[in-house]
């Protein structure tokens, strides 16, 4: 732009950003009334931003939300529950296995304690 | 942010997918508009919108309740679009055909085989022209301009989405606006 002052360009931006005071708006208006070049520049800026504002907001297809949900990771708690209902036998075995394993483990521990006691006892004897 | 949204997010943090579906319904068209104007292609924009929501769900723990949810979400959306554009730039050679700007709004309004009235035709042409010019903007100006003029965000909100100072947002918008003015009004002048 040939108009010597960058001041008016800055004012245009302020007005377009809705940050200009009433007084600043007046200053710009007065200048635009006299300067054809700045007037055209300002009109072109307004024209371009209007076009941007008018751009359509297209809608997504109806199934969008559903297809997003389908791609989410399975919920953890639900995942365990679903596995259980899909494999009832395995679940039953797993549930029974836990106390059995605990019992075996406990006996094993007792036995090794006894062994230890026995060894201690035998070492005392010698 | 309203109370209902806060409640929904708390549920999502516990893994509630139905609550997340409600959030998707609230914001899907805004996210789609950002992606579409960033990349200029409806199919790609739809894929990127999906990616945005999936990433949001997977990282919901990182969302901070003190900020606006939309701000956080739009940030993911713009980042995903920018990543995509960089990948595309890396893959496509310079003289390859740029993917089309086909099917913006009108394809969803007009039934197959229906004829376009003149006014709609004009509107479609203008839209395509504007979209093309937006796509010529450097990414950082493009996202600022889109958040301002497509999403109607305030300068403050844009600065939060882009994580840059308000002053920088202004500079980017001013430069983007000036570039669009030049390209839109070049040659043909203004069309009403």
Furnish the topology, listing elements before pairings:
The complex is a heterodimer of chains A (126) and B (192).
Chain A: H1 7-16, H2 22-34, H3 36-54, H4 64-70, H5 76-86, H6 88-125
Helix pairs in contact in A: 1-2, 2-3
Chain B: H1 3-13, H2 17-39, H3 42-58, H4 69-91, H5 106-109, H6 118-136, H7 139-149, H8 155-162, H9 166-185
Domain RNA polymerase sigma factor 70 region 4 type (chain B): 129-180
Keywords (chain B): Sigma factor, Transcription, Transcription regulation
Domain RNA polymerase sigma-70 region (chain B): 23-89
Commentary on this structure:
Helices cover 78% and strands 0% of the residues of chain A. With 126 residues, chain A is mainly alpha-helical. Chain A has 2 domains: 7-54, no CATH class; 86-126. The longest helix of chain A is centred in the C-terminal third of the chain and has 38 residues, at 88-125. The radius of gyration of chain A is 41 Å and the shape is rod-shaped. With 192 residues, chain B is mainly α. Chain B has a domain at 1-99: RNA polymerase sigma factor, region 2, helix turn helix motif (Rna Polymerase Sigma Factor, Chain: A, Orthogonal Bundle), CATH 1.10.1740. Chain B is built from 9 helices and no strands. Chain B has helices spanning 3-13, 17-39, 42-58, 69-91, 106-109, 118-136, 139-149, 155-162, 166-185. Chain B starts with a helix and ends in a 7-residue tail after the last helix. The chains are: A mainly alpha (126), B mainly alpha (192). The A-B interface holds A 13, 16-17, 41, 43-45, 47-49, 51-53, 55-61, 64-65, 67-69, 71-73, 75-77 and B 15-17, 20-21, 24-25, 28-29, 32-33, 36-37, 42, 46, 49-50, 53-54, 57-58, 104-106, 108, 126-127, 130-131, 134, 145, 149-150, 155, 170, 173-174, 177-178, 180-181, 184-185, 190.
């Amino acid at each position: 732009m040939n108009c010597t002052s960058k001041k008016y360009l800055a004012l245009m931006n302020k007005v377009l950003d809705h940050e200009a005071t009433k007084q600043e708006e007046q200053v710009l208006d007065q200048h635009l009334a006299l300067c054809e070049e700045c007037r055209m520049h300002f009109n072109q800026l307004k024209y371009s931003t209007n076009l941007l504002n008018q751009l359509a907001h297209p809608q997504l297809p109806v199934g969008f939300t559903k297809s997003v949900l389908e791609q989410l990771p399975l919920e953890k708690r639900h995942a365990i529950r679903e596995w259980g209902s899909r494999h009832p036998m395995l679940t039953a075995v797993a549930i029974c296995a836990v106390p059995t394993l605990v019992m075996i483990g406990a006996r094993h521990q007792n036995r090794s304690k006894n062994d230890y006691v026995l060894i201690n006892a035998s070492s005392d004897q010698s | 942010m309203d109370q209902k949204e806060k409640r929904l997010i708390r549920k999502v943090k516990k893994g509630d997918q139905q609550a997340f579906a409600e959030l998707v319904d609230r914001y899907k068209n805004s996210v789609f508009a950002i992606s579409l104007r960033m990349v200029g292609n409806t199919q790609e924009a739809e894929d990127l919108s999906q990616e945005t929501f999936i990433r949001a769900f997977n990282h919901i723990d990182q969302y901070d309740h003190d900020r606006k949810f939309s701000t956080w979400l739009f940030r993911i959306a713009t980042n995903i679009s920018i990543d995509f554009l960089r990948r595309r730039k890396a893959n496509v050679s310079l003289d390859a055909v740029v993917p089309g700007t086909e099917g913006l709004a009108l394809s969803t309004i007009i039934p197959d085989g229906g004829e376009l009235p003149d006014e709609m035709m004009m509107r479609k042409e203008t839209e395509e022209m504007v979209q093309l010019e937006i796509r010529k903007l450097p990414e950082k100006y493009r996202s600022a301009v889109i958040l301002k003029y497509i999403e109607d965000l305030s300068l403050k909100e844009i600065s939060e989405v882009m994580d840059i100072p308000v002053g920088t947002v202004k500079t980017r918008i001013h430069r983007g606006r000036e570039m669009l003015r030049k390209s839109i009004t070049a040659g043909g002048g203004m069309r009403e």
